[in-house]
Specification:
The complex is a heterodimer.
Chain A: H1 6-10, E1 17-28, E2 31-42, E3 46-50, H2 57-64, E4 72-77, E5 80-81, H3 86-95, E6 96-99, H4 111-121, H5 127-140, H6 156-169, E7 174-178, H7 186-201, E8 205-209, H8 213-219, E9 222-227, E10 230-235, H9 237-242, H10 247-256
Parallel strand pairs in A: 3-8, 3-9, 6-7, 7-8
Antiparallel strand pairs in A: 1-2, 1-4, 4-5, 9-10
Helix pairs in contact in A: 4-5, 4-6, 5-6, 6-7
Chain B: H1 19-27, H2 32-58, H3 68-71, H4 79-91, H5 99-113, H6 124-144, H7 160-186, H8 191-205, H9 209-223, H10 232-257, H11 261-269, H12 274-289, H13 291-304, H14 316-325, H15 333-362
The chains are: A alpha/beta, B mainly alpha.
The structure holds adenosine-5'-triphosphate and magnesium ion.
C-alpha cells in the first residue's frame, strides 16, 4: 500500500478473513470457465478484478453469492461454507451485497420501495423503520430527493447510486461490484465512483470488477488480473501497473491504458 | 413622396383549410381513392342505418304484455317480448319470490368493488381479499339457501345472466391463480413439476371446450364412486376453470419470459426466497406486461360460458333462446339475439376499457 496516499492510509485491513476461495472450478456444460481459483479476501480489503472480456470475472464473483454454482473446491464467506444447503446460501447472501452493470432496479417500485423491500420481507423490519433506514442510505448516496420517483425517471448514474443504497440497506459486510460504471455515460461515471470511494473509506470490504484504472490506483489495495478462467496475476496496484509480470497482463494493460 | 411601407393585414387562411369544410377535405376527400371510399361508406351507412333505426326504435313495439301487442306493427322490433321475459333472462328459473337474494348479492358485490376504484382508499388489499375469499361464501349462501331460514334453491334452477356471471366470475377468479402456478411450474427447474405442468397445459389446450363440458357432465359421473353426487353446475365450473387456466398459464408464461434475468438475480442477491421474489418482483411486472392477454382470455372465457347450454344449463343465451322458441313468442329470435349481443358486448367492452385504464395507471415510465 502506498503510504503517500492519505485516503488509502485511512482504510485499514484487518486479519479477519472475509472470503476464502480454495481450488474452485466451474464448468458451463463442457466449457471450463473457472480453473483452480484461489483467493483470500481480508476484512476491509478493496480488490479490483480486471481482465479481457469472457475471462470469467463475472462468473467468479457471482459464485461468491451463489448466483452461479461452482462444481469443485470450496468457497467460505465469513466462516460459512457455500453448499447446496439453502440456509448457508441465505446466510451468505445476508453478508454480501451486489451491484450490477445494468443496475437491476425494480422498475415497478419507487426508489424508496426498492431500498425497503428486502428489509421488510427478508429482515421482517416494520415498514416505518425500514423507510428510515432506506432514507438514511439514500442520503448517503446523495439522492434523498428522488425517493418517491420510479427508477425509469432517473438518470443512469442516479439509478446506480440507488442500487448501491439498496444493497447497503441490508448492512452487508462485503460488497461485490460487477462493472458498475460500464453502462454509464462518461459524465455520470464520476458520481458513482465517488460514492464507491466513500464506501471504501468507511471500511467496507469490496470486490470490484472494473476497467476504471484510476479507481484501481487510488482505492484498491490489490489488483487481480484474470484471463481464460484463471487468476494470472495478483499484486498491489502500484506494482501491478508499473511492473506487470506476465505477458498477458502486459498486453492487456497496453490495450486499455 | 416618401415611401412608407404599410404592411397588409394578414389574410385569413383559405376557406378550404379551416372549419367543417377544411376537416372534410383533409380527412374524407383528400384524394380520389379517399373520396371513393367516403362515398361508398356513406352509401352503405345510408343502406343500413335508417332501416335499423326504423326497426329498433321508430317502428318498434314497446308497450303491451303479449305477442298480440306486436301484431299491430310487424315491421318493427317487438321489445314487448324482451320486457315480458326479462326476469327470466336475468334469473333463469330462480323462484320469483327469491329474486331479492340475487339482487342483494349483486348489490353487495358492486358495493364492495366500488372502493377499489377510489384513489384514496387505503385498505384495498384487505378488501380485495374479502371479495375473493369471503364474498363467494356469502353469495353461495344467498343463492343456494337452505340455511338461516332461506329457501333451498337447487343449482338447476339458477339461470340467465346470473348463471353466466357466476360461471364467468368463478372462472376468472380461479383461472388466474391456477394459470400463474402452472406457468411457474412450466418454468421450474424441478423436472417432475415441469413435466406435470406441461402435460396439464397441453392436454387441456388440446381439446375443445365442448368436449370438456360433455366429459364433465356425462363421463365424470361414471368414474365417481357409487353414491357420490357432484353437482352438474360444479362439474361444468371445474371444467371451465381447468380449461381456461391452461390458456392463462401460457399468457402468464409469456410475461415471465419478458422479465430480464437481472431482476431475478437482484432479488436473489438481496436474499429474497423463490416465492417472495416471484410474488414481489417478477409476477407484478410480468402480469402487468400481459394485462391485454389476460383480459383477452377473460373475455373469451366470458363468452365461452354460453357453451354450457349444450349440457342443459340455462345461461343468458340459453334463456333467451328458450324465450323465443316458446309457442307464445315464436318468431322473435332477432330481438332475442340482439339483446343477447348487447348484454355480452357491454360486459366485454367494460372489461376491455378497465384493462386499458389499469395499464395506464400501472405505467411507471420505465423504458425497457
Ligand atoms: N450461462 C452461461 N452458459 C454458458 N456459458 C456462459 C454462461 N455465462 C457465461 N458464459 C461464458 O463464460 C465465460 C465467462 O463469462 P463471464 O461473464 O464471467 O466473463 P467476464 O469476464 O465477466 O466478461 P465481460 O468483461 O464481458 O463481462 C464467457 O466465455 C461466457 O461466454
Ligand atoms: Mg462480466
Amino acid at each position: 500500500m502506498s503510504e503517500s496516499d492519505p485516503n488509502k492510509a485511512a482504510m485499514s485491513v484487518s486479519d479477519h478473513v472475509m472470503i476464502e476461495i480454495r481450488g474452485m472450478h466451474k464448468w458451463y456444460g463442457e466449457f471450463h470457465v473457472l480453473k483452480e481459483i484461489n483467493l483470500i479476501v481480508h476484512k476491509g480489503e478493496r480488490i479490483v478484478v480486471c481482465g479481457p472480456s469472457g475471462s470469467g470475472k463475472s462468473t467468479m464473483i457471482r459464485c461468491i453469492n451463489r448466483l452461479e454454482e461452482h462444481q469443485q473446491g470450496d468457497i467460505i464467506v465469513d466462516g460459512v461454507e457455500l453448499t447446496d444447503d439453502l440456509k448457508h446460501i441465505d446466510q451468505v447472501r445476508k453478508e454480501v451485497g451486489m451491484v450490477f452493470q445494468h443496475f437491476n432496479l425494480f422498475p415497478h417500485l419507487t426508489v424508496l420501495e426498492n431500498c425497503c423491500l428486502a428489509l421488510i420481507w427478508v429482515r421482517k423490519m416494520p415498514r416505518r423503520k425500514a423507510e428510515e433506514v432506506g432514507m438514511h442510505y439514500l442520503e448517503k448516496v446523495r439522492i434523498p430527493e428522488q425517493a418517491k420517483k420510479y427508477p425509469g425517471q432517473l438518470s443512469g448514474g442516479q439509478q446506480q447510486r440507488v442500487a448501491i443504497a439498496r444493497s447497503l440497506c441490508m448492512s452487508p459486510n462485503i460488497m461485490l461490484f460487477d462493472e458498475p460504471t460500464s453502462a454509464l455515460d462518461p459524465e455520470m461515471i464520476k458520481e458513482v465512483l465517488d460514492t464507491m470511494i466513500e464506501l471504501a473509506e468507511s471500511g467496507m470490504t469490496m470486490l470490484v470488477i472494473t476497467h476504471e484504472m484510476g479507481f484501481a490506483k487510488t482505492v484498491a489495495n490489490r489488483v487481480i488480473f484474470m484471463d481464460e478462467g484463471e487468476i494470472i496475476e495478483e499484486n498491489d496496484p502500484e506494482a501491478f501497473f508499473t511492473t506487470p509480470q506476465s505477458d498477458r497482463t502486459k498486453l492487456f494493460l497496453s490495450q486499455i491504458m | 413622396m416618401p415611401l412608407v411601407h404599410t404592411p397588409h393585414p394578414d389574410l385569413p387562411p383559405p376557406i378550404t383549410n379551416v372549419g367543417v369544410i377544411g376537416w372534410l377535405r383533409q380527412n374524407l376527400f383528400s384524394s380520389w381513392i379517399n373520396t371513393f371510399w367516403t362515398l361508398l361508406a356513406s352509401y352503405l351507412i345510408y343502406l343500413t342505418i335508417p332501416p335499423l333505426i326504423n326497426w329498433a326504435i321508430i317502428d318498434a313495439n314497446w308497450i303491451g304484455d303479449s305477442r298480440a301487442s306486436c301484431d299491430a306493427n310487424q315491421s318493427g322490433a317487438c321489445w314487448v317480448f324482451i320486457a315480458a321475459r326479462f326476469d327470466q333472462f336475468m334469473y333463469g328459473f330462480y323462484p320469483e319470490s327469491e329474486y331479492w337474494r340475487v339482487n342483494l348479492a349483486a348489490i353487495l358485490l358492486l358495493a364492495m368493488m366500488t372502493p377499489l376504484f377510489l384513489e384514496r382508499f387505503h385498505y384495498k388489499a384487505w378488501l380485495a381479499a374479502a371479495i375473493l375469499f369471503v364474498y363467494p361464501v356469502v353469495a353461495y349462501t344467498l343463492f343456494a339457501g337452505d340455511v338461516f331460514g332461506l329457501m333451498d334453491v337447487e343449482t338447476s334452477r339458477w339461470g340467465g345472466l346470473m348463471l353466466t356471471l357466476v360461471l364467468s366470475g368463478v372462472g376468472i377468479v380461479a383461472s388466474l391463480p391456477i394459470g400463474i402456478v402452472l406457468a411457474l411450474g412450466r418454468r421450474s427447474n424441478m423436472p417432475i413439476v415441469k413435466s406435470l405442468s406441461i402435460v396439464f397445459i397441453e392436454l387441456w389446450r388440446g381439446v375443445p371446450l365442448i368436449t370438456v363440458l360433455f366429459m364433465a357432465s356425462v363421463m365424470l359421473p361414471l368414474f365417481l364412486p357409487e353414491g357420490t353426487h357432484l353437482d352438474k353446475l360444479l362439474r361444468a365450473m371445474i371444467g371451465i376453470v381447468l380449461f381456461q387456466s391452461a390458456y392463462m398459464a401460457e399468457v402468464v408464461r409469456g410475461g415471465l419470459q419478458a422479465i430480464p434475468r437481472g431482476q431475478y438475480e437482484a432479488a436473489q442477491a438481496l436474499g429474497l426466497s423463490y416465492w417472495k421474489s416471484m410474488g414481489l418482483i417478477i409476477l407484478p411486472q410480468a402480469l402487468k406486461l400481459v394485462i391485454p392477454g389476460i383480459v383477452n382470455t377473460f373475455i373469451a372465457l366470458f363468452k365461452d360460458t354460453t357453451l354450457v347450454l349444450i349440457i342443459g344449463l340455462f345461461d343468458l343465451l340459453a334463456m333467451i333462446q328458450a324465450g323465443f322458441v316458446d309457442a307464445k313468442w315464436l318468431g322473435f329470435a332477432i330481438e332475442g339475439y340482439v339483446v343477447a349481443a348487447l348484454i355480452y358486448w357491454i360486459f366485454c367492452f367494460s372489461m376491455s376499457r378497465y384493462s386499458q385504464s389499469l395499464e395506464k395507471k400501472l405505467n411507471t415510465g420505465h423504458a425497457r
